[in-house]
């Protein structure tokens, strides 16, 4: 029998719940069950029934917004106000999937334009790829579950989600709500297990699609071990660069956007604002105003409705962020605000001016409430410095000059470039994913649905086809 693990609030270590912790035998049984469901083609869930189940899920979730908000905030540490937004986004993810099923279709392939293709008609259509295994991260426990469960079920794939052990309750709750919505047993399973169990799920020949959200080291390691034919989607972190031109709207756009994009969820977001390159003529002004805005943010218990920056996911992360900031200061960075831990679980929103290029805060994803501001004189130099790392995810440029904006879009190593907005902007129907070391494949509900599908072609031959 599986054992239990406690789930604790990252703010005060208070136990907020417990979940089953599956052993290896249970992990293997879960994958066998998912494979059994996929191989039984006569009992695949028809599209209209999938729509019905997802619509029921939306109703169930919409009736539990407050409960789900508290659950997300309690286990993940994201402030209550942002956790509520996460819940509403997760509900919208289900809606997006239902809507995309209306255009989820194949196409006619032209025939008859050569002698060898006469009397033929060809069409493609979509089929589910097979068993989907989703390994998730801690930072958006409900919305990530939606992004990894819902597309798979929408297209007809059995799916197993392995949530982060720090934040498993939201994902398991979504699996339970899917069952309540009418999903038959075995089509969505939540498994909390050790690394051995996770690797088994990811690398088994029974797994047709692996969706991984987490660290690059783990993701690329699993990618190298998957079975032949397994399709893989990886979402890792970025070291988000922002370029601020001299003509940017400092007070109306730059400072408010960078404050939100840099300190949302204490910086524990894969596209958080981290490296801000500001033209030398306004650099000091921007840095000081950003520091002032950051210093006014309320840090504390994520369940307090007025908290804007909550705890880091564990005490070890606070230690790490503190070490990285101290290293940057020793190498010449100027602390404009913050720079210290508030408690075992919280770190001050921090703005550093001109850290050295070899500091960890300049070369690695901080994943904490730290924003670095650098001065530049030439936009080409700013772009070169922004592109100096192997990560490639979302980036941003602030300017009122359309030519400079287009130049940044063309030359920045990024999968998306925001103009006059922060790097952490996202809506769930847009393509979202990293390139180079930041990931593989493209997420976003409609894009994941397409990735989790195979296209099959049917060719009909008849003398009646001209």
Description of the molecule:
The chain is an alpha/beta fold and 466 residues long. The protein has two domains: 255 residues, 3-Layer(aba) Sandwich (Aldehyde Dehydrogenase, Chain A, domain 1); 179 residues, Aldehyde Dehydrogenase, Chain A, domain 2. The chain has 15 helices and 20 strands. The strands form five sheets. It has a seven-stranded mixed sheet with strand order 12-13-14-11-10-16-17, with helices on both faces. Strands 7-6-5-8-9-19 form a six-stranded mixed sheet, sandwiched between helices. The protein has a three-stranded antiparallel sheet with strand order 3-4-20. Helix 2 runs antiparallel to helix 4 and helix 4 packs parallel to helix 5. The protein starts with a strand and ends in a 5-residue tail after the last strand.
Q: Which terms would index this structure?
A:
alpha/beta, Aldehyde Dehydrogenase, Chain A, domain 1, Aldehyde Dehydrogenase, Chain A, domain 2, 2 domains, six-stranded mixed β-sheet
Q: Identify low-pLDDT runs.
A: none
Instruction: Tell me the name of the CATH homologous superfamily of the largest domain.
Output: Aldehyde Dehydrogenase, Chain A, domain 1
Largest sheet: 7 strands, mixed
CATH-defined architecture of the largest domain: 3-Layer(aba) Sandwich
Helix- and strand-based class? alpha/beta
Number of strands: 20
CATH topology of the largest domain: Aldehyde Dehydrogenase, Chain A, domain 1
* Rg computed from alpha carbons, rounded to a whole number of angstroms: 24 Å
The overall pLDDT average reads 97
Cα separation of the termini: 64 Å
Give the domain tally: 2
Sum up the overall morphology in one term: globular
State the helix count: 15
